[in-house]
Amino acid sequence: MLKQVVRLLMAALYVSIPYAATAAERVVDPVASWNKHFKTWAVVSIVVYLVVTIPLIYFVFKYKRKRKDENGAYIVGNTAIEILWTVVPMIIIIMLGAQSWAVFNDLRDVPKDHIEVKAVGFMYGFEMYSPEGIKTINELRVPVGNVKVNLTSKDVIHDFALPAFRTREDMVPGENTYLWFAAKEPGEYPVYCAEYCGAGHSQMLAKVIVMKQDDYDAWVKKQKGDSEMASLTPETKGKDLVERLGCLGCHSITGETKAGPALNGIIGKSEELEDGTKVAIDEAFVKEKIADPKAKPIKGFGHMMPPNMLAKEEYEAIAAYLKTTK
Amino acid sequence: MTTQPAGFKSWLFTTDHKKIGVMYLVTSLVFFVVGLLLATIMRVEQLDMTKTVVIGANLYNTAFTIHGAAMVLFWMIPVLLGFFANYMIPLMIGAHDVAFPRLNALSYWLYVGAGLIAVMGLVLPGRLDIGWTGYPPYSITGPANIAFYAFAVHLLGASSISAAVNFITTIITLRAPGMTWGRLNLTVWGLFGAFIIQLVGVPVLAAAVTLLLFDKYLGTSFYNGFKGGSPILYEHLFWFYGHPAVYVVALPVFGIVSDIISTFSRKRVYGYTSMVIAIMMITLVGFETWVHHMYVAGTLNWTRVLFMWGTIAIGVPTGIKTFNWLATLHKGSIELNTPMLHALGFISLFTIGGVTGIANGLLGFDIQVHDTHWVVAHFHYVLAISMSMLCLGGVYYWFPKFTGKMYNEKLGKTAFWITLVGAMIAFLPQFYLGYNGIPRRYWKLPVEFAPAMKIAAIFSFITIAGFLMTLYNLVHSAIKGEKAPANPWNSLSLEWQIPSPPPFYNFEKIPTITDGPYEYGKPANTNVSVKRTPSLQGK
Predict the structure, then answer these.
(1) What are A275-320's pLDDT values in tens digits?
(2) What does the pLDDT look like over B58-85, one tens digit per residue?
(3) Is the pLDDT of residue B166 over 80?
(4) I need a surface site. Which of A122, A203, A302, B86 has the fewest CB within 10 A?
(5) CB–CB of A81 and B327 under 8 A?
(6) Is residue A127 within 8 angstroms of chain B, CB to CB?
(7) Could you report the predicted ipTM of this complex, rounded to two decimals?
(8) Topology of the domain covering A230-324
(9) Bridge partners for B334 per DSSP
(10) Which of B454, B452, B422, B419 is nearest to B434 (CA)?
């Protein structure tokens, strides 16, 4: 009932607005319509700013106090002028609002011809799933075309911000949200987490890689076959995993302490655990730690790292790679 | 007339609205300085985007949490609703004190208690790193001890609610004979609107953080999306008060601007009635805006559209106020001293914040800049810097009244220009970052934006230096300033018609009011206002 009333009200508002025609039109490119909206806003804003500041400065000089006991003119107000500067801003705001509504519709109404992918936020990174079910970390590969991204989160609220396509939406644990974008040019586009999520927030970065359809098909084939991965050395494979799994969001390989300890040269080091015992870090410890990080927390760091389920060779590859870092 | 009690105990156990007001001012200025220091640390940290400069990510997160809380909850709201309301409302409406003086003292001490808990949240283990918004699930699952957060909000909420009850009652019932609603200072009107918002909004915030506390320590799942709750519920409850809280700051500020401009233009406030209507419109429509904080939070599409109209509609009454200020200057007799400069500087900064705020309110526009540095820049122009500046301007304006001393005009003007130049530029680079969609609350930004943030840092240091000069001026003048006359500005407003500083019971006899506070140069004025009788005039 309430919903119907609100809908009715919305419909009434919708038709009564002079710009409703614009809102009803379907512009296919949200980026272009956003850019146009920005320009309209910018022009209006600059005019408003000048309309306020120029008289302000002019009056201050023109009506400077000349005598000590001088009074200003006695003016109570002027209804006509006051109505004027109520109605004109109202019209400007309704026009801007209608344009914005149209842009919003572009940003939220997914065109019929689209592919669907999925992104899941975690502390600190993004799991991406292609329509073929290929899982990647912190990079989303899509072919040229319209892409709908279904969003959710594993732990806390994150956000999938895609400035190049003028869109973003929160990733809410236990709920499903979405956004869409029109991928036109092949290339790499940055993704940011734009909802504060803790120590690794500013390192929660990813990218969308738009590929030509042929390249994308080849990539899918390669991933399915996974033929190339087998021929790689464990060290190279380990490096690839560390980068792909998002480890570098919290662990540096340059020696700097981020949300977690630095990884370079960690094998062979000795660290103190939270319960006070000292451990010498060896390959076995590293493997155990990746699988179940909360079992033996190292002193001075939080308990933020999520557990991982990797294949046996993958644990070994990471350990092998870490041994090579200095 | 009763003599004024003196000594330390007279402050500790006072129920005098003027002493409580001054204590509010001093306490809130301490938090202002804390906020400025944290701002300095964060700006220094962002001078280099490749490595740690002074603090790591965890401490940075605590810094922006306490910076936000200190500035909004412990500086701006208390200085306006604590100091200005306490000190000025009884003087402006012609009353001996507030309606409930002991409740008033309780409000102050609850505020001090809340402040102490907030400071503990900064220094004790389990530091608050949840942002001043404290969104779950991070606030629940993260390392922060949110009991500090919840109890600080509870105490502060109790303080705010009792203050709101107190002052709404005071304004309604204790106006002197002849002080009609149409003769109230706009400062009183602004505060009246702000207290209504406090009364309606704060209980909801208290409920929101109580559920947060239950979720964390009692194992309930109001905000747990995996167990049938929803984190978005918290966002709704929080912003139901969290956004109108902005108008709690803005409305009294608007009132003070009107008073200052009228006094120093020696001219009636243009369109007094429309000013009052605008204040009340903002009070009302302010509760139909909160979802704009959740434009990308996964809320339903139609709710976003509905709240966009509410949000941008606020631009209309705000515009009315701005144009009325300009019209007040028109054909006035303008004296550019320190308080007036602060009021005009406020308008110029506030307008930048206003137009960029319309951008944030515009749904389609906002999606690109939501939770980016654009927002940071916007609210620092519209709220943080402009309104802090105006609060200090208001302190300058009434400084002779509440201290009985004159401030240093030259230092005041110098400090103003330093603050203004810094403030004008300090946040412009962040609009550029926001336009590019770079998120806020990032410890380190992408390196290509490092130069922009360096410019921002340098000018924010200038702003902070200006603020500190102002504070020095106020403290120094309060101790060593020259003696002030009762009415140095020749204002017609009631609070200036009594000696400076005011006597213990303000008015020996409750005055009878025969005219409004802004009637400068009223032609053929045969009404002899009590405010203009020589016995009440200063020299």
Answers:
(1) 888 888 888 888 888 888 878 888 877 777 777 777 778 888 888 8
(2) 999 999 999 999 999 999 999 999 999 9
(3) yes
(4) A302
(5) yes
(6) no
(7) 0.91
(8) Cytochrome Bc1 Complex; Chain D, domain 2 (1.10.760)
(9) A64
(10) B452
Q: Whose structure tokens read 């103190």?
A: A272
The CATH number linked to B50 is 1.20.210.10
Topology of domain A2-65+74-108 in CATH is Helix Hairpins (1.10.287)
Q: How far apart are CA A72 and CA A74, in angstroms?
A: 6
Phi and psi at residue A151, to the nearest 5°: -120, 145
pLDDT number for residue B538:
36
A-chain residue closest to B352, CA distance: A49
Q: How does the average pLDDT of chain B come out, rounded?
A: 93
pLDDT band of residue B269 (cuts 50, 70, 90) is: very high
Q: Which of A26, A170, A189 to mutate to test the interface with B (most CBs of B within 10 A)?
A: A170
By Cβ distance, the residue of A75, A102, A174 closest to B226 is A174
Structure tokens at B16: 């005098």
**CATH: 2.40.128.110, 2.60.40.730, 2.40.50.100, 2.60.40.420. Which one for A115-225?**
2.60.40.420
The reply to whether the predicted model has a pTM over 0.95 is no
Strand ranges for chain A from DSSP E: 115-122, 125-129, 135-137, 139-143, 145-153, 158-162, 167-171, 177-183, 187-192, 205-211, 270-272, 278-280
pLDDT band for position B524 (cuts 50, 70, 90): low
